[in-house]
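Researcher: We're teaching a course module on how sequence relates to structure. For the next exercise, students receive a sequence and then see the predicted structure as tokens, so they can try to spot secondary structure elements on their own. Here is the exercise chain.
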Amino acid sequence: MSNTMIRRLVGGVGAALIFLICGVVIAAHFLTGRNLQRIDVSEYTTVQSDGSGGYIAELDVDRLITEQRLHNPTELEIDDYPEIAAIRGLSVRVTPQGDAFELETVTMGEDPTALLKRHGIRLINTVWTVNRAELDGSGEAETPSRKDKLVFSDYVVTVRTDNGFDAKLDLVRLLTDAGFDPSADPSSSIGMRALSSLDVACQQTAEGYRLQTTSTLPSVMDDLKAAGITVTHTQWTWTAREMEAHVGTITTLEPHAPETEQPTPPETHETPNPTDAPETDEPTAVPETPAPETPAPTRSADAIDTLYGFDQTEVRKAIRAAKEQKYGSSIEASEVKYNYFAVGSSTTEHGNVFRLVYKITTSSGTEYLIADVYDLESETGYAASDVKLSVESSSTKARSTDDLKDYKVYTLTGGSMVFAENKDKSPFDKDGLVMAKSLTESVSYDELWDIPQTDDLTLLQLLGYARNEMFARGGHKFGDSSNYLKYFKQFSWYKPTGSVSADALAEKYPATKKNITTIKFLEKLIKEG
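Model: And here is the predicted structure for the students to work with:
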């Protein structure tokens, strides 16, 4: 080989290496640059007192995954989504720094930064500092153990009766945990007056014992909000076994203290033989209060005033089509951030308004798209032309419902719908199943939207049960820490044999292939639009 040929060969190889290096540099630029999906950890972190002058922080990973439009795999799928496993391994540590506190994102395993970058994710605000005044909120002197968020069911004790069980509210402990003196005059503050008006009612249902918060104060929700107090888990069902486990005594005041007036206990109801019902752990409800009478609303033809049992698939698909028409190929990412259903009265322009608010990311930045559909009708097809679009630059303006101030506005979380007359019906049957026919028969969108809602489980979460119960009945063994394992193992029909794939399940039960696809599409439609 001549020297000239060698020089040409070396030169060619050198040029190739230069192009390769340039390509790597460019790729690295894009992977580490502005195209990464940025997730602000501080937005999903809540901090509360530990009762001894310090604070503990909690990262709401489930909300992060939902709002950031990330895939939420089951235990069966988690190995295929290492970035989600890494996010689920995150927590937030609180460290005192003088009169301030440093909050820092930590992980149980290796630093996930590189892994998340490979999957287009970058965590921001992973270390930040807050002072004690910010953590204390108003700065008013309160006992360190004061709780601003009260899980109502934690203060309910049960008693045995001739017919089964009844329930009573431990009001003294409720007031104490809220930072009030139970012996004080209930009218001494708006918060104490509201909490003192609460009680619990217990009545029979087909699933067991239905317990519900009651109040003698019509303005209780507004008063609790004004006092900065949130009361959750206000409606739930306990089985006979759970009622037995909560048998106890009511906390009484110390002998030297004057007696606090207690609400009149509810009447005891006869109860049937209860069946097992699942426990829930994500309460979002507030105490129900009687709604004032309103004039009969003026409606367009067949306009509906409740979304319970209404098949939202077509209207949501129409909104998605309108969004895609507006942005075309320029859209990089979108997610449903807010969802409202507003019911009008005789003074409003429309019978009702269905609204989705998207967070839209394009090459030029982020904006919020508001999509409205007016006067939903029970039997009408929907198209992109039925959707009114508007754009806001900030999430604060986008989530505002000031323009709907004359409407009764419901916030739909996780696809959940406005309750109707059968709101107390459990979504689970006696065997703990959401959609019992799904192994052998096709399920429709209409049936899935018709799943009864609870205060503790959104439709999106119930769809997860409906999908995974097919695998459970097929013998799939969920991970030891899986909530599905904890739930399904309480039923005698659940006999896990090992890992079961969707294909293997479909070989034995052909109907499950379509049903899994149907449910996953609906889950995606609710989360991403």
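Model: If you want an answer key for the exercise: Residues 46 and 58 are 5 Å apart (CA to CA). Residues 24-34, 138-145, 254-289, 291-297 have pLDDT under 50 and may be disordered.
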